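Input/output pair, single chain:
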Amino acid sequence: MNNVTVRTISGAAFIVVMVACLVFNKYLFAGLMVTIMSIMLLEFYHITMGHSYTFSKVLAIIAGIFLFGVLFAASTYHIPMRFVALVMIPVFIVMITSLYVKDKEEYGKFSNIYTGLLYIAVPIALGNLIAFDKAGNFSGNLLLCFFIIIWCSDVGAFSFGLSLGKKFPAKLFPTVSPKKTWIGFIGGLVASVVAAIVLYEVGLLRFPLIHSIILAIIMSVAGVYGDLFESQWKRVYGVKDSGNIIPGHGGLLDRFDSTLMAMPFGAIYLGIFDLL
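Output:
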C-alpha cells in the first residue's frame, strides 16, 4: 500500500478508538488520555535525552500520571483542589535524585524532564476540565468537538497545501518547517471554522455561533504554533518523526503536537467567557 492509503487506514482506526473512548464513559477517557500522555512523554524524552537518566524519566511520567489522576478525581469526585499540590512530590523526587547522578557532563538534559511535564503532561491533564462539567458529570462531547476542530484544521492545511502549494508557494515558517505554506494555513483555518459551524448546527457545540467560530479560529492558529514548536524540537535533535507507533503518521507526539497548544488555548477562551 502507498503512504496515503496507510495513513488513511491507520488514521481512521485511531479516530474510531479516540471517539469510542471519549463517548462511552469516563474511565475509558482516563485510560486513553493517560496512555497518550505517557507515550508522548516517552517519545519526547527519547528525542531530547536518548537513553540517559531512565529512572528520572520514569519518575517524570509517574508525576504526569499522578497530575492527571488528581485532576480527574477533583473533577469527578470533588476532592479538594488543594490535593493537586501533591503532584509536586514526584517532581521534587526527580530534582533530588538528580543530585546523586555521578556523571554531570550531561546534567543539562534534566531540564528536558521539566519541559516535558509542562509541554505535555499539563495540557493533557487539563483535559479533565473540558470533559467534566462543574457538577462533576462526564461528557466527552466538548473534548470530542475540540479534537474534530483540530483534525479538520490539520486535514484542511494538508489538502490546501497539497493541491495549491505549487500555485501559492509562500512558506509559513521555512526555518522550522519548510513544507508548511500560507495557503495551507488558510486552508486549515477555513476547515476549522466550517467544522465549528457544522458542530454548532448539529448541537454538539452548545455555545453561540460567534463563540464557536472564534473558538475554531483560536484553536486553529494555536494548533499551527503547536505543530511548529514540536518541529523545532525535532529539527534541533535531527529527528524526522517522534516515533513509529501509528503507521504512516509517526509517533503520538507527531499527531498531538497541535492539540497540546490548541486545547489549552480553547479552554482559556471558553473560561474567560464562563462557557466552560
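The chain has a mean pLDDT of 89. The radius of gyration is 19 Å.
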